[in-house]
Design a protein that fits this description.
Layout (H helix, E strand, L loop, with lengths): L1 H33 L38 E3 L7 E5 L2 E5 L6 E8 L2 E7 L5 E5 L7 E4 L11 E13 L4 E11 L14
Antiparallel strand pairs: 1-2, 2-7, 3-6, 4-5, 4-8, 8-9
C-alpha cells in the first residue's frame, strides 16, 4: 500500500514538472516571436595608423578592420638562461558591420602560439595580462657586426577571421636581446 502511495505521489510530481516546462516553453516561444533583433554597436578600433600593420589579400577585396597590435617587444627576464619572451601591449580586431569575429591566431616563426576564438562578438580585445609573461623563444647568441648585444630575430603573423569569411593579418619582426644558456655542472667524484 505504501509503495502505491509513493508511486502516485512521484507520478503527480512528474506530471506537474512536465506541465511547468510546457507553460515555460510556450512563454519563451511567444516572447521570441514577438521580439525584434537589434544589432549591437561596433566599437571603434583603437589607433589603427601605426606603421607596422599590413592587410593580407587583394587590395580590391573587402577586409575586416585591421588588427591593432602595438608594441611587440622581446625581453629577457633572467640573464644566462637563454629564454626570452615576446609580448604585445594588446591585440584588437573588429569585424565588418553585421559580422562577428570568429578567431585570432598568433604565429611566431612557423609555429602557432595562440588561438583565440570568439562567440557572437563584433570585436576581440586580448590584453597583455591574458598572455603574460609572453611567448617563450630562444634569445640566441650575439650577432656581433652591426648590432652587438642583439640575438635572434623572429617573424610573427597575427591573423583574424570573421563570420562573413573575410580575413586580415599583421606581419612583422621583433629582435631579442642576446643571451645563451649557461649550464654549470657540479664536479662529481666517482668512487
Amino acid at each position: 500500500m505504501a509503495s502505491d502511495t509513493r508511486l502516485s505521489k512521484g507520478l503527480r510530481i512528474l506530471l506537474g514538472a512536465l506541465a511547468l516546462v510546457g507553460v515555460l516553453g510556450i512563454v519563451v516561444v511567444r516572447v521570441a516571436l514577438g521580439s525584434q533583433a537589434v544589432p549591437l554597436a561596433t566599437p571603434t578600433p583603437i589607433d589603427t595608423d601605426l606603421p607596422h600593420r599590413g592587410v593580407s589579400g587583394d587590395v580590391e577585396s573587402p577586409t575586416i578592420s585591421s588588427i591593432d597590435s602595438p608594441n611587440p617587444t622581446c625581453y629577457r627576464p633572467v640573464a644566462g638562461t637563454g629564454a626570452c619572451f615576446i609580448q604585445w601591449g594588446y591585440l584588437y580586431v573588429s569585424a565588418a558591420s553585421g559580422s562577428y569575429v570568429v578567431s585570432m591566431t598568433v604565429t611566431i616563426g612557423d609555429r602557432i602560439r595562440a588561438y583565440h576564438s570568439g562567440f557572437f562578438q563584433p570585436s576581440m580585445y586580448i590584453p597583455a595580462d591574458m598572455t603574460a609573461p609572453g611567448y617563450r623563444v630562444d634569445c640566441g647568441p650575439s650577432t656581433g657586426g652591426g648590432s652587438p648585444g642583439w640575438g635572434k630575430t623572429y617573424t610573427y603573423q597575427i591573423r583574424a577571421r570573421e563570420t562573413g569569411g573575410l580575413t586580415t593579418a599583421n606581419y612583422g619582426a621583433v629582435t631579442c636581446p642576446a643571451d645563451i644558456a649557461r649550464l654549470f655542472l657540479p664536479l662529481i667524484r666517482r668512487q
